[in-house]
Design a protein that fits this description.
Layout lengths: L1 E18 L5 E19 L4 E6 L13 H13 L5 E6 L10 H16 L6 H11 L3 H6 L2 E5 L4 E4 L6 E7 L6 H14 L15 H9 L2 H7 L1 E2 L2 H7 L3 H10 L4 E4 L6 E5 L2 H14 L4 E7 L5 E2 L3
Parallel strand pairs: 1-8, 3-4
Antiparallel strand pairs: 1-2, 1-12, 2-4, 2-5, 5-6, 7-10, 7-11, 9-10
């Protein structure tokens, strides 16, 4: 039995370029791994089977649309072996919440199956397989803080000092990432243009990179951006109330996490994180609130 712990992510910068001819967008995506995470356990089995536990377990697909199952099959195919594994996901990352929970589980399954089957797959090959699974999967392997370019899969680790404290507010229901990108394109088209001809390719914000390197939460708060936030709030207007509730409770900054609908609040320290989480729950604008911290490492086998 092999258990792998894998972190959720928040995008401290999500710069979205214009719509490309292939339907994707160029990104300047600064991923930040946080201690809120899932655990994926792999045991020997017949074929690929999948079970799940946790608050959102009922929303997790248990078929081959799940990235954990797809990861097991992809790794086995790469090595020319039969994909015989029973996978269990202990779910803590919100489902369809903009924190890459499905991608995290795919990364964890790659690491767990590689260890269970004794394959010793090189890290570079695991990264390539992760990129085949999805744009956010490679970062879940890496962890820490990294700049993602292209569709987000081309990663450059970034220097960071110290620990930053966060609160994540979980909304009822999820948001479809393709729907949020589509709404982003629609809103941009209304105000001038949405294609990669009209919208410049984004780049990482130097002020944000400097704040991370210095370990300065106040400076980081001023630099947080998410180009998908207007689209997420357009599709789910109640998110504006959650963002306001967190800032009124003392967060340094608030933003939608990725494509939402989870909202993220940067706070000064662990004590403030607990207070903001309690205030968000009391506000009635979310169904759960989690105080956590980061950055943390990527998917890793738990000892013992």
């Amino acid at each position: 039995m092999i258990t792998v712990r894998v972190p959720a992510k928040v995008n401290v910068q999500l710069g979205v370029g214009g719509l490309r001819a292939d339907g994707f967008h160029d990104l300047a995506n600064v991923f930040f791994a946080v201690a809120l995470g899932d655990e994926v356990t792999a045991r020997h089995g017949e074929g690929v089977t999948l079970t799940c536990s946790g608050p959102d377990a009922g929303s997790v697909p248990l078929d081959d649309t799940n990235l954990a199952a797809r990861a097991a099959r992809l790794l086995a195919a790469h090595h020319g072996i039969e994909p015989n594994v029973a996978l269990h996901i202990a779910k803590a990352i919100p489902v369809a919440g903009g924190m890459a929970g499905g991608s995290a589980d795919g990364a964890a399954a790659l690491v767990a199956c590689d260890a269970l089957w004794g394959l010793d797959t090189p890290a570079g090959v695991l990264h390539e397989l992760a990129a085949e699974l999805g744009s956010d999967v490679p970062f879940a392997l890496l962890g820490g803080v990294a700049l993602g370019r292209g569709r987000g899969e081309l990663l450059e680790p970034l220097p960071v000092t110290g620990t930053f404290h966060w609160v994540f507010a979980v909304a009822d229901g999820g948001l479809s990432t393709p729907a949020v990108y589509g709404e982003c394109d629609r809103l941009r088209a209304e105000t001038g243009g949405h294609t990669d001809v009209e919208v410049p390719t984004p780049d990482a914000d130097p002020a944000l990179l400097a704040a991370l390197a210095a370990g300065d939460p106040v400076a980081l708060a001023k630099a947080l951006t998410n180009d998908l936030q207007p689209a997420a709030v357009s599709l789910r207007p109640a998110l504006a109330d959650t963002l306001l509730a967190g800032t009124e409770a003392g967060a340094l900054a608030a933003l939608v996490s990725g494509s939402g609908p989870t909202t993220a609040f940067l706070v000064a320290d662990a004590e403030r994180a607990a207070a903001v989480a309690a205030a968000l729950l009391a506000s009635g604008t979310c169904r759960a609130a989690h105080a956590t911290y980061g950055p943390v490492p990527g998917a890793a086998v738990l000892a013992g």
